[in-house]
Amino acid sequence: MDEGAATRWTVGLCTYKRPDGLARVIDHIGRAAARLGEPVTVIVVDNDGSDPAIAALAQARAAAAGLALVFQVETTPGISAARNAVFAAADAMGARFMAMIDDDEWPTDDWLVELDVERARTGAHVVGGPVAPVFPDTAKRLEPIARWWSVERQTLNGKPFVFCTCNFLIDLHAVRDMPRPLFDPKFGLSGGGDTVFFRSLFFAGHPMAWTDKALVHEEVPQSRASVAWMRTRRYRVGNHAVNWEVRDGGRRKALLKSLGLTARLAIYPLLGREPEARMAGWLFEYEKVRGRWNAHRGALYMEYAREGALANEKACR
After folding, report:
1. Which residues, 6+ apart, have CB-to-CB distance to 19 below 8 Å?
2. pLDDT of 94-128, one tens digit each?
3. Domain 4-224 maps to which CATH number in 3.40.50.1000, 3.40.50.11030, 3.90.550.10, 3.40.50.80?
4. How far is residue 102's CA from residue 304's CA, in Å, rounded to a whole number?
5. pTM score, whole prediction
6. CA 178 to chain centre
7. CA dihedral in degrees (168, 155, 191, 309; nearest 10)?
């Protein structure tokens, strides 16, 4: 690649009680690193630390995949602390480029190559790629509406916008002078801190790009393979959106948007935004709007609380 021998590549990921997923993703990172043709260090931050076998597993898999490994335990609960630990480790080793992925995902072999090709082509500081869900055999009925479990291309103010840490590449030189921590601890248990981070980059003028060729797959466990679960996820999306909108533009602007989205519900199925499932689209939009109004009332959905039904849900989104 164009930076030559001085380039230092890392792939960072947070993990929480998913040993099988961790093993799988490290194996696939090794394949992507081999295709890239440069030394790659994988940074694993265990946001638990109760099982010493996790470190041994990561060491063994990284060695087998030909990857250097930095393994750390971050005992502070919450996804912000884990993400900040990943970036701190990359800073400490002087890395230039870092991709991130989740512990329930696995990349295609050309993942790193395609992210880097798009970075070099566009000069973007951040490059994102899609995430495609893989449903269990018992939930194949959801494949026609898989878009709601997917991560797809988004724009903000007409420009490419990368919005989550589950599949992206960043030029760390571009964020070297940003205040630390990069991910606000206030969002550690609620989630949504990654979108806040990317919005801060976007509005600071850091160019972003997207490539559909840098594909990542995500395992959808039985616990998330239902319309009921997606209703909760869409509620969470709306609930968290209000927080970063207030942060960026103030309460009045966020409230006006909620009013507009509420009024649009009356005609939403007629808009054809989800032609494959108009009523499911309306239902999920309704949940998003409901989440927004509860946020205006002060209710914050806790995606990463360690107690209750969400304790073992996705640890890095």
Report:
1. 51, 53, 54, 57
2. 999 999 999 999 999 999 999 999 999 999 999 99
3. 3.90.550.10
4. 14
5. 0.90
6. 20
7. -100
- Per the CB < 8 A criterion, the answer to whether 91 and 98 are in contact is no
Do 217 and 21 meet the contact criterion of CB atoms below 8 Å apart?
no
> Which positions of the chain have pLDDT values less than 70?
1-7, 305-317
Q: Per residue in 166-175, pLDDT tens? A: 999 999 999 9
| Domain coordinates in residue numbering, the chain | 4-224, 227-296
Helices (H) and strands (E) in the chain, counts: 8, 12
* Amino acid sitting at position 165: T
Beta bridge partner(s), residue 62: none
